[in-house]
Amino acid sequence: MDDLPTATVELTPDQKASIRVLVIDDEESICESCLTVLRHEGFDVSASMRGSEAEDILQRRGADIVLLDLYMSGVSGRKLLRTALETNAAALVIVMTGRPSVESAIQALREGAWDYIPKPFSGTHLQVLVGRAAHTVVVARESREQDEADEEKAAPLGDSPAFRAVIGLARKVATTDASVFITGESGTGKEMVAQFIHQASRRKSRRLVALNCAALPETLLESEMFGHVKGAFTGATRDKAGLMEVASGGTLFLDEITEMAPTTQAKLLRVVQDGVVRRVGSTGVEPVVNVRFISATNRDPLEAVEEGKLREDLFYRLGVVPIHIPPLRVRPEDIPILVRHFLSSYWERHRGADAPVPSLTPAAMRHLQERPWKGNVRELQNVIEHAIVLAEWRDQIDVSDIPHHHQPGGSASQLSRNGIQFGPWLAAGGYHAAREEVIARFEKDYLSWVLQETDGNVSEAARVAGVNRATLYRLLEKHELTKGEVLSD
After folding, report:
1. Which of 45, 187, 205, 462 would give a disulfide with 38, using CB separation of 3.0 to 4.6 Å?
2. Which of helix, strand or coil describes residue 76?
C-alpha cells in the first residue's frame, strides 16, 4: 500500500477509538496492510484469516465495521455477512473482492452489505471508504442516543404493572398514525402520555400542538382550531391559520374533548374524515392537513356520548385506540419514581444545577405513599415543588418539610368558615408570597363554587361572579379547572 494520507472525514480520536473494525481475509498481506492503515487512523481494529475464528469474534465481541473478503478458503463470505448483521444489525459490512467478481459484490449489497472495495486497493481508497463508514456509524449512534434521550424525557414516569401496561400500549400505537383517546382523572398525566406517543412516533420532528377545549368559548375555539379569514368577525383584521394547519405533519392533542360544543364537533369530524379544514368565514379554497389526533377527557366518554356531550361518530373516529390512565392512589409504587424526578427537576430550577439534590427520608416517602392524591400526579408535583422552595438547605427532606394544605376540592364557604391557616409554609415566603398564595387559593375555590352553584353554566357563572365570559374562561385556564372536573367533585 502507499504512504498513509491524512484523514478525509474528521472524527475525534475518542470517536475513532470507540469504533470496532474487523478485517476478515485469508490473505496475510491484505490483513497486515489494513491493520497498519486503520490503526494509524486510530480505530480499534483486529483481523482474522480464518472463517471460524471470525465467526467467534463477531459473536463474542461484535464489530461496527467489517471488511470482508467474499471468497475465503473453507468458509462462505455470505455466511459471515449474515453473521455480522445478526450480531449487530447496525454493523456496516464492506465487501473486498477481486475485479472479476464485482457482480458478486453487488449481489452482497442486495443482501445487506454497505459498500464494496475492489482488489487491489490503495491505502488512500481504504482510508476514505472506512472514514465514510465510521462517520455513518457515529451519526447513527448519536441519532439513537438522541432518540433514547427524547423518549426518556417524554416518557411519563412510573413502574407499576398498571402503568407499564399504559406505556406498553402507548409505545405500540406510537409507531402508527391511529387516533388515540386517553381517559383518566384530572392530573393523572394524560398530556404526558400524549407527549410520549408523539416523541416515539415518526412525526416527532414536527410539532405537538395542545389545545384545551374547555378553556375557550365556542367561537374562539373554532377560530383557534380552524383559523379564520380577514373580516370573518369583529377583530379579524387578517387571515390566520388555525392550530389544525400548525399541527399538519405532526400531532394535535385535544384535551377535554367532551367540553367542545356540538357544532364545533361536527366541523372537527369533517377534518378527521377527509383532512379538509374550513377557516371561519372562508368561501374559497380550503387547506388540507395531515394531522395525527390524540384526544383526552376526565369523563367516561361513553357516558358523554349517551348524554349528548360527545358525538358518537366523532368518538369512534378519535377513539381507534383507547388508553386509560389509572389514578395515582391505586399505584403508590410509582410515587418514589415520580418524587425523584420532580425533586431533581425543581431543585435545579429553584436551587441551581450545581446544588446536590436532596432525597426524602423513609418517613417522608411513606407519608407521600399513604396520601389519597385526589389531584393525582399534578397534586404530587405541586407538593414537591412547594417542599423544594420552602425546605431548609440540607441532604434530606422530612415529613415536616412537606406541605399538608394541598387537598383539592375545598369550597369557598369552607374557606370563609375555617379561616386562613397561617402555618410555617405560608409565613416562610414573606408577605407578598403569602398574599399571592392566598389569592390563588381563593380564586380557585371561588371558581369551583360558582360553577357548582350554576351547574356548569358559564354565562350564568360569569353573571354571578360579576365578570365577563372571557375573564371567567381566562381564570379557569389559569387554575387548570374544567367544568367536568368541578362538577364531578
Report:
1. 45
2. strand
Question: Are 146 and 188 within 8 A, CB to CB?
Answer: no
Least Cα distance to 356 among 388, 398, 384 occurs for 388
Q: Tell me the per-residue pLDDT of 297-316, one tens digit each, with 9 for 90 and over.
A: 999 999 999 999 999 999 99
Rounded to whole angstroms, the Cα distance separating 117 from 412 reads 79
Element (H, E) at 267: helix 262-274
**CATH entry, 409-489, from 1.20.120, 1.10.238, 1.10.8, 1.10.10:** 1.10.10
Q: Select from 3.40.50.2300, 3.20.20.70, 1.10.268.10, 3.40.50.700 the CATH code of 13-149.
A: 3.40.50.2300
What does the block give as the cell for 277? Answer: 379544514
- Given a contact cutoff of 8 angstroms between Cβ atoms, the answer to whether 178 and 321 are in contact is yes
Whether omega for the bond prior to residue 362 falls within 30 degrees of 0, making it cis, is: no
13-149 with 329-406: one CATH topology? no
- In CATH terms, is domain 329-406 a member of 1.10.8.60? yes
pLDDT per position as a tens digit, 128-138: 899 999 998 98
Cell numbers 414516569 correspond to 157
Furthest C-alpha separation in the chain? 96
For the chain, give me the number of helices (H) and strands (E)? 22, 16
pTM across the whole model: 0.56
* Contacts of 281 by beta carbon, 8 Å cutoff, 6+ apart: 228, 229, 231, 232, 233, 236
CA-to-CA distance for 270 and 8, rounded, in angstroms? Answer: 55
Q: 155-326: which CATH topology?
A: Rossmann fold (3.40.50)
